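Q: I'm writing a short explainer about NIPA-like protein 3 isoform X2 for a general audience and would like to include a description of its predicted shape. Could you first generate the structure from this sequence?
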Amino acid sequence: MDRAPSAALQLRQLPPTSSAHPVGEVSFSYKENLIGALLAIFGHLVVSIALNLQKYCHIRLAGSKDPRAYFKTKTWWLGLFLMLLGELGVFASYAFAPLSLIVPLSAVSVIASAIIGIIFIKEKWKPKDFLRRYVLSFVGCGLAIVGTYLLVTFAPNSHEKMTGENITKHLVSWPFLLYMLVEIVLFCLLLYFYKEKNANNIIVILLLVALLGSMTVVTVKAVAGMLVLSIQGNLQLDYPIFYVMFVCMVATAVYQAAFLSQASQMYDSSLIASVGYILSTTIAITAGAVFYLDFIGEDALHICMFALGCLIAFLGVFLITRNRKKAIPFEPYISMDAMPDEGAG
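A: Of course. Here's the predicted structure. Afterward I'll give you a sentence or two in plain language.
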């Protein structure tokens, strides 16, 4: 006699299936978004500084009679330390914020490089070239900063725990399997045209990079999330999916670097930076939306504003890199006169 009321009571006590977050969880998710965004911004900024430090070290040694190898200088080792620190910050950011928020924040590297270049670049400009050379770069930096602000403000608030069960569930879901099928077919077609038909167009090469990169960031988020949970006491390293994701992360990153190296031998670095950023960000956000369901439960306004932030950041990066001076072999891009007079170390 009491079974029917008891069953009804149990049904009423079940947690809601809606994707909407409770008030406390929403505030916590925004806090996590902010932590992840700050880690990513810090990481990209430090990596940009590190790369310029190491390049400055190479230039100083090439322009002097110092017989030391670059790896025997303090400046180069400082750059390496900062690069590792920055990469660690970017890696950790994936454990806190949705993939769709972290990926576009790589625009910070472009902004930082542009500012460092404007300060230290060795260029003699005429007044008529100032608008073309510098004002567009400043406008691009402003747009990229506005786009970054919109991305952080209207980013999705998907904060699913990166447990082995959840990652496995997403990995075998039919939307992701369908997405993977399309991506594999597209990758094979592009690779065929690139290898067999000598299609060395920059779009073809950077699409290969972007397709690999989308899998890299998907696996990075899984590995980073499972490591953070393990550090917090919820051990995830005994799940085989962790090692599957780790191997995929390393493999796709290595092949991605190989294609980028080939592209850098044929095209200007500024063109690679702008086109690569747009393609990689677009495909990576798509992969995150399919695999991690980043935008499930988000209202149309947030999605539209997030997309607007991406477009503004894309335009900013394009303007920053559009008129960057092409590198001339053996010409220092940093003026020796602009640097403090100190030893290479």
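A: For your explainer, you could say: The radius of gyration is 23 Å.
Q: Perfect, that's easy to follow.
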